[in-house]
């Protein structure tokens, strides 16, 4: 159903409030550069600090700007199943194409608990993509659990950010053939594609949507040499986006290119000076500044 490069789009702020005008411009930039889809209200969009009203507004604006040109996969996860249901139902009613749902964080559910969580959300009727990022949530959804969930109607894929290629191999070996695996780590996108993944939900594509999209498409179309060349060209930037906690580096880089104000919501803060200097060097070496 979905494949390619999907941008985990940032949420721009101005004086503490959502910068709606700027956000619309970012979406148009993504569309102009040919990205395969938009993912609002993910980690990169600072979803933990959005109110429910803001969360819904971001989804609404995204759908208004995209106008069906590419799929919109709305972040709707929560560590409360009830809250995730509310957001997922809203995304469905608003017209999103799918929901990206993070594994419940902090309360550390068991594998059985996560299975119950996702099955409950699947009943809403919107396609669900599981989001596994143990470094943030404190839990790892096991390949065997993903295998079970892949057989549930409306659970269609996973964004895998465990960093374990063995885990990704295990997932692909046990899920239904139609189940889609997306990279959740830009620097691991090419290896994941080589194992059978179908794309990436990307941070760097906020800056370079065309280039990241070209890399993924090249691989999917069988031009492996071009895909490898683009991977190694982009690799320093892939890594630079995680010098500090995402989305601090990518928003810093975007601000340097005058794409957005240099602003986050607390508890996120500006980069440490030495890290910002490292980021600037990578950007300069890559020809961005």
Supply database-style keywords.
289 residues; alpha/beta; TIM Barrel; 8-stranded parallel sheet; two-stranded antiparallel ribbon; 12 helices; 10 strands; 46% helix; 13% strand
How does this model look, in words?
It is a single chain. The chain has 289 residues and is α/β, with parallel strands linked by helices. The chain has one domain: TIM Barrel (Alpha-Beta Barrel). Helix content is 46%, strand content 13%. It contains 12 helices and 10 strands. It has helices spanning 20-32, 52-66, 81-94, 111-122, 134-137, 143-149, 165-174, 189-195, 209-220, 224-240, 248-256, 273-285; strands at residues 4-8, 13-14, 17-18, 37-39, 73-75, 98-102, 128-132, 155-160, 180-183, 199-202. The strands form 2 sheets. It has an 8-stranded parallel β-sheet. Strands 2-3 form a two-stranded antiparallel sheet. Strand 6, helix 4 and strand 7 form a beta-alpha-beta unit. Helix 1 packs parallel to helix 2 (52-66), helix 6 (143-149) runs parallel beside helix 7 and helix 9 runs antiparallel to helix 10. The N and C termini lie far apart (37 Å). The mean pLDDT is 97.
